[in-house]
Amino acid sequence: MSLFSEVPQAPPVAVFKLSADFREDSHPQKVNLGVGAYRTDDCEPWVLPVVKKVERLIVEDASLNHEYLPILGLPEFRSASSKVALGEDSAAIKDNRVGGVQALGGTGALRIGAEFLRRWYNGTNNTATPVYVSAPTWENHNAVFADAGFKDIRPYHYWDAANRGLDITGLLDDLEKAPEHSIFILHACAHNPTGTDPTQDQWKQIAEIMKRRNLFVFFDSAYQGFASGSLDKDAWAIRFFVSEGFELFVAQSFSKNFGLYNERVGNLTVVSQDNENLTRVLSQMEKLVRTTWSNPPSQGARIVSRTLNSPELFAEWKGNVKTMADRVLLMRDELKSKLQALGTPGTWDHITQQIGMFSFTGLNPKQVEYMIKERHVYLMASGRINMCGLTTKNIDYVAESIHESVTKVQ
Predict the structure, then answer these.
(1) In 3-state terms, the chain is what percent helix, strand and coil (to 5)?
(2) Residue 109: count of CB within 10 angstroms of its CB
(3) Which of 60, 155, 320, 408 is the most buried (most CB within 10 A)?
(4) Rounded to 5 degrees, what angle do the CA atoms 246, 251, 257 make?
(5) Sheet with 98-104, side-by-side order of all strands
(6) Three-class SS of residue 176?
């Protein structure tokens, strides 16, 4: 008998299972609205022009080699990443109390941050410290913090299903009731999966309560620039919290806004009270990295670093990002208009009120099942769709499919 005969079969990861089912479908009009990656209007992956240019520069650079990077990562990548999140003129950066940890994507940044908090936040071995995640949230948030050893992971109110928007009253109430020193995972922009973000005034309300209640802020920033087309606008919440004196973490991903999905380029930005605290925090994170992946890969970090540190390439990248953001915004407008023209029951204003890659359509699980089985339109069971999966060629079919599912299935 095998030593592993008692290992249970794990369920497949939902979004990857959805993509596998899509590939096996032979229907000529099939549409994949599940995968969380940018697609062109031809429904193809897009390598950003600036990325192609920088890759050529790297290949031709005779000074580069394949020696190990420092444990915490490429220094110029880490500093540039933190500047993108906090702003070039950040007082926290000028005060030398900001540091970064190069990570394996946004997930790696979340995991290193979670591992550190479990060991060192507000005293050692914090397995009982409550960790709050939005309801709903990206599925990995729960899993990352649970696997890091946290035992008390709680939802906080976020999505108002009836009004298809933010439940700000419930969110603020949960902040008031949370035990002091609880950890809150906040989506910096383009909330996944709802696409619904607080307004600036609502962010101020959230910050006021969190400061008064001594709650820890851990931002997940996976879509900066991709949401609105503006790096500064999409980082507004992070920068406001820093200006209010918070010590906080920011998990950054460059998968979406650089199209570097398989390079796994991420950064954990740490904002501390002063340089002395920052130095000690980073020393412990170095130990965590050493026993996790030991040293990060260089290629993706070099692409991002060269782009962010060159004024000319940085400007070109911002243009590339705006191209992606504008296409998503156009698809939102088109889908809403087509559903309204069809007279689809219900309100569809939330399609354009939401922002970023994803839209929480409001379709229920039975309607989603109908979309997949009868119309061959693949989306998550929650009703979340990737707006990038819509194109000028399939949007009429998708709108008609939504209309049919809503009118036929309750």
Answers:
(1) 50, 15, 40
(2) 29
(3) 320
(4) 125
(5) 98-104, 265-271, 248-253, 216-221, 183-187, 131-135, 153-157
(6) helix
200-212 and 236-243 helices, crossing angle to 10°: 40
Who contacts 80 (Cβ-Cβ below 8 Å, separation ≥6)?
Answer: 304, 305, 308, 309
**Catalytic residue (choose from 46, 138, 159, 348):** 138
Is 182 within 8 Å of 215 (Cβ atoms)? yes
Q: Show Cβ contacts of residue 88 under 8 Å, excluding neighbours closer than 6 positions.
A: none
Q: Which of these, 257, 220, 191, 15, lies nearest to 114 by C-alpha position?
A: 220
Which pLDDT score, from 0 to 100, does residue 37 have? Answer: 87
Rg over CA atoms, the chain: 22
Options 30, 256, 336, 338, the catalytic residue: 256
pLDDT tens, 379-406? Answer: 999 999 999 999 999 999 999 999 999 9
Is residue 233 annotated as a catalytic residue, yes or no?
no
CA nearest 358: which of 137, 168, 46, 113? 137
Core vs surface per residue 259-288: b (16+ CB within 10 A) or e: bbbebbbbbbbbbbeeeeebeebbeebeeb
Catalytic residue among 167, 174, 197, 220: 220
Question: Among this protein's residues, is 256 annotated catalytic?
Answer: yes
**Whole-angstrom distance between the N-terminal and C-terminal Cα of the chain?**
50
CA triple 15-384-260, angle to 5 deg? 55
Residue 95: alpha-carbon gap to chain centroid: 28
The pLDDT, as a whole number, for residue 35 is: 79
d(CA 318, CA 307): 10
Give residue for tokens 């969190």.
Answer: 210
Q: Is the pLDDT of residue 290 over 80?
A: yes
Q: Is 138 an annotated catalytic residue?
A: yes
Query: 33: which strand partners?
Result: none
Asked if the bond preceding 365 is cis, omega within 30° of 0, the reply is no
Q: Is 376's pLDDT higher than 80?
A: yes
Q: What is the pLDDT of residues 124-179, one digit of tens each?
A: 778 889 999 999 999 899 999 999 999 999 999 999 988 889 999 999 999 999 99
Token pair 């930005």 in the structure block, residue: 269
- As separate numbers, helices (DSSP H) first and strands (DSSP E) second, the chain gives 17, 13
Element (H, E) at 20: helix 14-24
What average pLDDT does range 336-357 have in this prediction? 93
